[in-house]
Design a protein that fits this description.
alpha+beta, 18% helix, 163 residues, three-stranded antiparallel sheet, 7 strands, 3 helices, 2 domains, two-stranded antiparallel ribbon
Length: 163
């Protein structure tokens, strides 16, 4: 499904609006530890990018002009946010550390992840029979972040969906 960033659809306005009360993770980032031995830097960046999203570092991307160390910080932070800032996910063999100083530089935004949501139980105190569908027994509220990219602008929207 393609959503337009503005206009009308059958007389109904389709302009995007900002989400409110979006639950972000704590304001912290994962960056290269400048005091570390960087001989294993590339292997760790490869790991982070293979398990995260480093497309902004590709040629033409908003982070494509970063230094090698800043590029590694972008990769490490992206992985750290994708793992919900889980303990131990900002280590990379001692090459990274957590900081509360925003490393955003120029057009390259170092993002903060969204808070994971909890499972909302719709069951009563009576247990469900073993054959009951888990889809009936509980619902999951999921945060979704959608990125729209065009040659004119980048728009990020956040929505909370319930199943």
């Amino acid at each position: 499904m393609f959503l337009s960033a503005g206009g009308t659809n059958g007389g109904t306005s389709t302009n995007l609006i900002s989400a409110t009360n979006v639950p972000y993770l704590p304001t912290q980032w994962c960056v290269v530890n400048q005091n570390a031995d960087l001989t294993q830097l590339q292997a760790n960046v490869d790991y982070a990018c293979n398990h995260g999203d480093c497309t902004a570092s590709f040629p033409g991307g908003s982070c494509s002009t970063l230094t090698v160390q800043a590029n590694a910080s972008y990769a490490f932070n992206n992985y750290y946010q994708f793992t919900d800032q889980a303990s131990g996910t900002c280590n990379f063999q001692g090459l990274a550390k957590v900081t509360t100083t925003n490393p955003t530089t120029g057009t390259c935004q170092f993002l903060i992840g969204l808070q994971p949501t909890a499972v909302l139980s719709s069951s009563t105190s009576d247990p469900k029979p073993p054959h009951a569908s888990t889809a009936v027994a509980s619902r999951t509220a999921t945060s979704v972040c959608i990125l729209f990219v065009s040659s004119a602008a980048i728009v990020v929207g956040s929505w909370i969906l319930q199943f």
